[in-house]
Automatic annotation (TrEMBL):
NCBIfam families: C45_proenzyme
Protein known as: Peptidase C45
Domain spans labelled Peptidase C45 hydrolase: 159-294
Gene3D superfamilies: 1.10.10.2120, Penicillin V Acylase, Chain A (3.60.60.10)
InterPro entries named in the record: C45_proenzyme-like (IPR047794), Peptidase_C45 (IPR047801), Peptidase_C45_hydrolase (IPR005079)
Region of interest (Disordered), residue spans: 1-21
Source lineage: Bacteria, Bacillati, Actinomycetota, Actinomycetes, Streptosporangiales
Source superkingdom: Bacteria
Length: 357
């Protein structure tokens, strides 16, 4: 089984860190940008429209977190792209929301708490199979001295990850009727700022609520003290605590809103109701998802049911923009400030396929 490439930055300053990353991973960033341009075009947006939306995202980022905009600019300088082009991959969720693109990938997340131990977590990361070579693992230290490790895509400042303060984030896409084309702060950058600055659930919640967003996502924040799902959308940020599914000490999430108020504006679940069946599958496997062995947890999560596969296999008969695949399985160890990552589908997990980062 192949492993994801990994990189450790030596520069703590945002611009320098970005330039170093862009110089080292320039080919990967450019390939990821080209892959997204292809996807955006299939969804109805040519380069001119993408540039317009990406520049809005960059302006919103600069107003909300100037250091993150500086880091995007550094990556662009290092790899020979324009800042808007790197902003486009960071804002890919926002651009797809603006285009009202359907068929987003189907990630599933499970977190099980236990007294006196680190939470047991696992999630699938499903996305378009033509972008399967985009992910990588990135370790860096912020200029404030916070250590961060993230599973992300080339050029994207963060996605799923853990920091040295004992906090981690899982990441699932959502879609809400309030999503709109006046592009705001990218949700991936909300996750990055949480990883870079937060040490508690409350700090993470404040950061999420401070951003003006235009697209939806759930960031599940995990600490030694507990877990909280932050359902982010333009209509607000919903907070879902462990036990919301009626199972004590357990927080499960797929791709629909659980907050009762925000659920009234659910958009993705109306198109892809399999998300509800996947959540029921996780609920039925809650005991297995608490197993101390990560490979056993992945096995408990695995499901190939036609209506709601937790392990996604691409259908070669579909157009590329409607195909997705489980490209990674990730678990966070917030106590150790580390992740374990499997490259490939959930049904391919074995004890020897985990990569510790």
């Amino acid at each position: 089984m192949t492993r994801f490439p990994a990189f450790t930055s030596s520069r703590p300053d945002p611009g320098g860190r970005g330039r170093e990353f862009g110089t080292h991973w320039g080919a990967a960033v450019r390939a990821n940008h080209d892959g997204y341009l292809r996807l955006f075009e299939a969804c109805g947006a040519g380069p001119g429209k993408v540039r317009e939306l990406a520049e809005r995202a960059l302006a919103a980022t600069a107003a909300w977190a100037p250091a993150l905009a500086e880091e995007i600019g550094g990556i662009a300088a290092g790899c020979g792209l324009e800042p808007w082009q790197v902003a486009a991959v960071n804002a890919r969720t926002e651009i797809l929301a603006a285009l009202r693109a359907g068929g987003e990938g189907e990630c599933s997340t499970a977190v099980v708490l236990g007294a006196g131990r680190s939470p047991r977590t696992v999630q699938t990361w499903d996305w378009h199979d033509h972008l399967r070579d985009a992910p990588l693992l990135w370790a860096f230290e912020t200029d404030g001295g916070r250590r961060v490790r993230t599973f992300t895509e080339a050029g994207v400042l963060a996605k799923i990850g853990v920091n040295g303060a004992g906090l981690g984030v899982h990441f699932n896409i959502l879609r809400h009727r309030s999503d709109h084309a006046d592009v705001g702060v990218p949700v991936h950058l909300v996750a990055r700022r949480i990883l870079g600055e937060a040490a508690t659930l409350e700090e993470a919640t404040r950061i999420a609520r401070s951003a003006r967003t235009s697209a939806s996502t759930v960031v599940t924040v995990v600490t030694l003290e507990g877990v909280r799902a932050l359902e982010i959308c333009p209509a607000g940020v919903g907070v879902v605590e462990a036990g919301a599914n009626g199972i004590g000490g357990v927080l499960l999430h797929t791709n629909h809103f659980l907050d009762p108020g925000l659920a009234r504006g659910e958009d993705l679940g109306t198109e892809r109701p399999g998300t509800y069946a996947r959540l029921r599958h996780l609920e039925e496997r809650a005991d297995g998802l608490a197993d101390p062995d990560l490979t056993a947890r992945a096995g408990a999560m695995t499901c190939h049911a036609p209506v709601a596969p937790v392990c996604a296999h691409p259908d070669p008969e579909l157009p590329f923009d409607q195909r997705w695949e489980t490209l990674a399985v990730i678990s966070l160890d917030v106590a150790a400030g580390a992740m374990r990552v499997h490259r490939g589908r959930l049904c391919q997990v074995a004890g020897t396929t985990w990569q510790t980062f």
